[in-house]
Specification:
DoxX, elongated, transmembrane, mainly alpha, Inner membrane protein YphA, about 0% strand
């Protein structure tokens, strides 16, 4: 049974995650050529397909987080995306400069932690302060 305060905490968690992804998606879109170049430097295959998918996942995913729309499936998609970006974008095991390697390791594990947050959203759902919550049948005041 979900307490009323739980929905507020889930909403705050969704917003905290959304800010990161909306900002990142918009920055990728406004600096699209640089983002494509970065993906090419990382050896990402099919960059012409991967780049728009990344922008869409981050901007639409961020928007869906704010709205609380389709949060359970979104949680899985965003967790997988965040782990994939950790592996491709923060590959600290390929870095020889100690300071840069340390920085990449922090970013790698940060992404893994964020993926954990998305998995929690998959389990909890969006809460009542959401489109999903508004569409779900409610049983009393506790849901």
């Amino acid at each position: 049974m979900m307490r009323p305060v739980d929905s507020g905490v889930i909403f705050i968690a969704r917003i905290a995650l959304a800010v990161l992804f909306l900002w990142s998606g918009v920055m990728k879109l406004t600096g699209y050529a640089g983002f494509v170049g970065y993906l090419q430097s990382k050896g990402v295959p099919f960059v012409q397909i991967a780049a728009p998918i990344a922008v869409a996942v981050e901007t639409l995913g961020g928007l869906f987080l704010v709205l609380g729309f389709k949060i359970r499936p979104l949680g899985i998609i965003m967790a997988l995306y965040t782990v994939a970006t950790a592996i491709t974008g923060h590959d600290f095991w390929n870095i020889t400069d100690a300071a840069l390697q340390h920085d990449m390791m922090i970013h790698f594990w940060k992404n893994i932690g964020i993926a954990g947050g998305f998995l929690l959203l998959f389990v909890t759902g969006a809460g009542r302060i959401s489109i999903d919550g508004a569409r779900a049948p409610h049983r009393g005041l506790g849901l």
